[in-house]
Amino acid sequence: MISVIIASVHRDLLDNVYANIDDTIGLPYEIISIENSDGQKGLCEIYNIGARRAKYNILCFMHEDIAIKTADWGLTVVEAFDKNKELGVLGVAGSSYKAFAPSGWGIGGERNTEAYNYFQRFKDLSKPVIHAYLNAKDLKSQEVVTVDGMWFCTTKEIALEFGFDEVLFTGFHCYDLDYCLNVGTSYQIRVTFEILMEHFSEGGYNKDWFFDTLKLHNKWSDQLPRYSFDIPVKVKSKIERKSYQIILARLVHLGISSSYIIAFLNTYRHQSKMNLWLYLRLRFKLMKLLNN
Fold first, then answer.
1. Given pLDDT bands bounded at 50, 70 and 90, which one contains residue 239?
2. Spatial strand order in the sheet of 29-35
3. I need a surface site. Which of 36, 127, 142, 158 has the fewest CB within 10 A?
4. Mean pLDDT, the chain, as a whole number?
């Protein structure tokens, strides 16, 4: 039995996901939908409210712009938690490496560490639907350190013990990564390949996302990078380099001032003890971005 917790912004989407869950979950459930069309509550606050209200032990936090394709997916979730008492979070997209460089849950297509299985639609309807699938080791599930917040499951006991940090994260970003990093100190975080869903809108990277990401990294700086298995130094270096390149490009795209970006890079150079060669490469990359 599962309690599904949803922050709702659009009534039509909520009606659709209600019907989808009823058609596919395959076991007794409840849906706790918390109306938030005015955006007054952050996701951490909403999810804490939902966890306290839930009457079942398995909790599923999900966006309302999702359609789950797998029949009886609820049975798969319950079995995963029943068979593995060390399991704390189960998602459908995640990474086995969380970079020291400010970043999302992954850097996009890193075969050594990332794992995901879902259909992605786009707000621009002219773009084709893609099947985002990466299962490099051909597993039923993969241990990771972070999952994407579009859909993930945990237990009520764990959610009440660890909670979502609604003091630090008052908006709509980083709730998922922070929860995983917190729960991951005591439990496993995993991605399942046995549940397939369709996500109807892609995530966005705005200034709120950036400043929340800085909060996340400041909070966990003494525990980053974090990884779920031994990763070669060359792979770590590659992921960190790409992560810095991505965040610099996003800052330029967001119109952040060049002086701020340079100061940001200098700060992380010292915090991460970045070698001079990488720093100079990133400064060169940044100059090219700023001059384009």
1. very high
2. 29-35, 2-8, 58-62, 151-155, 87-91, 188-192, 141-144
3. 127
4. 95
Mean pLDDT of 256-281: 94
Pair of tokens at residue 227: 């990884």
| DSSP line for the chain | -EEEEEEES-HHHHHHHHHHHHHH--S-EEEEEEE-TT--S-HHHHHHHHHHH--SSEEEEE-SSEEE-STTHHHHHHHHHHH-TTEEEEESEEESEE-SSS--S--S--TTTEEEEEEE--SSTTSPPEEEEE-TT--SEEEESEE-TTEEEEEHHHHHHH---TTT--SSSSHHHHHHHHHTTTSEEEEESS--EEE-S-----HHHHHHHHHHHHHHGGG-SEESS---HHHHHHHHHHHHHHHHHHHHHTT--HHHHHHHHHHHHHHTT--HHHHHHHHHHHHHHHH-
Q: Which of 122, 131, 137 is CA-nearest to residue 191?
A: 137
pLDDT at residue 95 is higher than 90: yes
> Which amino acid is located at 263 in the chain?
A
- Token code pair at residue 117: 């299985």
| Helical axes 258-271 vs 276-291, angle rounded to 10° | 170
User: Between the CA of residue 69 and those of 21, 63, 66, 131, what are the distances in Å?
Assistant: 10, 15, 10, 13
